[in-house]
Write a structure and sequence with these properties.
Blueprint lengths: L2 H7 L5 E6 L7 E6 L6 E5 L4 E6 L2 E6 L19 H5 L7 H14 L26 H11 L11 H12 L16 H14 L15 H12 L9 E7 L4 H8 L3 E6 L10 H11 L4 E8 L11 H13 L3 E5 L16 H8 L8 E4 L4
Parallel strand pairs: 6-7, 6-8, 8-9, 9-10
Antiparallel strand pairs: 1-2, 3-4, 4-5
Helix pairs in contact: 4-5, 10-11
Length: about 375
């Protein structure tokens, strides 16, 4: 059967990936994938047969007899991971889907009392017109396409940073495989940034892990602590309101959500009394393991005082909780009199026994 015959037999709208067999050049394997129905089609040139599966039935078609057999689907809503079905990620939920539909309608000329949709579901600065930092784009361009080093319009500081990065890459290429925790030279740069931010308190590159955004790092570390303790689900204490990454990941990992409420009347402050109440309630149904603190707050925007952070650290130490300090918005402090204090700096300044407790802090360049 030719490739064109395979395409004619396979379902319309699927996308094609073709590859030769390992050493048998006479064998052509094709895989057709559809995100909606999971359609699959494979062809073997030597046997002149095609296997094609489509929703909701599986058909086996032979090139000569054209006989068909029927079977049910292998993957259904009933037999997938049940935890996935419990996940809710509000910032990408029904409102976002509806916004996409409305945008399509506007593109097709539909008449509405507005001309555009402003997506305020998530902090997508570039989508709202903020200009990207030129230095970052220049460095990315240079390491991705080294001939740009000859471009005189690109400043020398960007070129030097790109040289440093390429020197730290195997083969001098960003396309090479990296260490599991990220390119070492970049981790060194991150450690230096943290050390400068924290007034000279040492930061070890070996303790830095690079991830695809803070969300990726948060999920990796939560996965380490998802195992039950004495037959109880592991619990995660999260602020309410919170960024829905946490509630979604808790559901995905089959952990227990333990919410503590921020004080709206006190500028969304974090009260230790509320932490104690939440923990006591959590212990009746799970084994609390993680205390998540978002500072500056997301979506509430509050900035914790140094004294408040010290109280939280003492609480986590006493209750043997792993501290997750989500500090993604540390550079977004604007109110006069407000100041960002990193959990790492405060913890180290407090000395023993607090400076040896487990702390996972998160930052993102986005």
């Amino acid at each position: 059967m030719s490739l064109s015959q395979v395409l004619n037999v396979c379902p319309k709208g699927a996308s094609l990936v073709a590859a030769t067999g390992r050493r048998n050049v006479g064998r052509i394997s094709t895989l057709l994938l559809s995100s909606s129905v999971g359609q699959q089609c494979s062809a073997n040139a030597s046997s002149n047969s095609v296997l094609l599966s489509a929703d909701p039935q599986v058909f086996s078609v032979n090139g000569t007899s054209n006989s068909r057999t029927m079977s049910t689907r292998c993957v259904t809503v009933d037999n997938i991971n049940p935890a996935i079905k419990l996940m809710e990620y509000a910032v990408r939920g029904p409102l976002v889907i509806r916004a996409g539909v409305i945008e399509k309608e506007l593109e097709q000329g539909a008449k509405k009392p507005f001309t555009e949709v402003i997506r305020a579901n998530i902090g997508d600065c570039h989508a709202m017109g903020q200009q990207p930092i030129t230095f970052l784009r220049q460095v990315l361009g240079l390491v991705s396409y080294p001939p740009l080093f000859d471009d005189k319009s690109i400043p020398e500081d960007a070129k030097q940073r790109a040289r440093d990065i390429l020197k730290g890459c195997k083969g001098g290429s960003v396309g090479s495989y990296t260490d599991s925790n990220g390119i070492e030279v970049i981790r060194q740069h991150v450690a230096q940034y943290i050390q400068d931010r924290d007034g000279g308190i040492p930061s070890d590159p070996a303790n830095i892990i690079l991830s695809a955004g803070a969300s990726g790092g948060i999920k990796v570390l939560m996965s380490l602590l998802r195992c039950p303790i004495d037959g109880k689900k592991p619990g995660v204490m999260i602020p309410i309101p919170q960024y829905p990454l946490y509630s979604a990941t808790i559901a995905e990992f089959e952990m227990e959500q333990c919410g503590y409420y921020l004080d709206e009347a006190n500028k969304w402050g974090l009260d230790i009394t509320e932490l104690k109440r939440s923990l006591a309630e959590a212990k009746t149904k799970c084994a609390p393991r993680i205390l998540v603190v978002i500072n500056p707050g997301n979506p509430t925007g509050q900035v914790l005082s140094k004294e408040n952070i010290q109280e939280i650290i003492k609480f986590a130490h006493q209750e043997k909780l792993v501290l997750f300090a989500d500090e993604v918005y540390q550079d977004n402090v604007y109110e006069k009199g407000s100041q960002f204090h990193s959990f790492k700096k405060v913890l180290m300044e407090m000395g023993a026994p607090y400076n040896t407790m487990e702390l996972c802090s998160f930052m993102s360049c986005s």
